[in-house]
Design brief:
Length: 191
């Protein structure tokens, strides 16, 4: 499975592609950060980030796009920019026919470090180690994008199994309700 991880942001948007080779084996394919000037108009910044994400989708042909779920922060302006970039990325992935998975920061941190409250340095160190990189990805947005991709590689099989189990459970519940309704009807006719 090839995953494009996106750490959304207007000033710095991290992009990382990871190949999952089954189990816990992962391999880095590419990593970069898209930067936009803070003084540029918002539509232009979104356009620049979107154009680069489109290039990455075309160039790296991911199977899925994993995006950090916008989490409440104290700075509303930062949250809005992050949410807008997330929306652009999700729309571009959908246009390319790719599924989009959203992971919270704590899910990503727990996946790569074992601790949902790990700091940026710890995440960067583990990403460097897990991907056997010669040097740590910089800035932290780059490491976060790779961490998102790793997280999805590891969590996707479990999430698929859970979805299958939920679908099977719903199917069994429907069959059970149908049998109950038939039994009630039959017992009503017998009276």
């Amino acid at each position: 499975m090839r995953v494009l991880g996106v750490d959304p942001g207007l000033t710095r948007c991290g992009l990382g592609v990871v190949d999952g080779a089954g189990g816990r084996r992962v391999r880095a394919v590419a990593v970069d950060v898209v930067r936009t000037p803070p003084d540029a108009p918002l539509p232009q910044r979104l356009l620049e980030v979107g154009a680069e994400v489109e290039r990455w989708i075309e160039r790296h042909r991911p199977d899925v796009v994993a995006v950090e779920r916008v989490f409440s922060q104290h700075n509303v302006r930062t949250v809005m920019g992050t949410a807008q970039v997330s929306g652009v990325v999700a729309m571009l992935a959908a246009r390319a026919g790719l599924p989009v998975a959203f992971h919270t920061p704590s899910e990503v941190k727990a996946a790569v470090t074992g601790e949902g409250r790990a700091g940026k340095q710890q995440v960067t160190a583990m990403v460097t180690r897990l991907l056997a990189l010669d040097e740590a990805p910089r800035p932290a947005d780059a490491a976060d994008a790779l961490a998102l991709a790793i997280c999805h590689c590891w969590r996707a099989p479990m999430l698929d199994r859970m979805a299958q189990a939920q679908a099977r459970s719903a199917e069994l519940a429907r069959a059970h309700r149908a049998r109950l309704a038939a039994a009630r009807k039959a017992s009503g006719e017998a009276s």
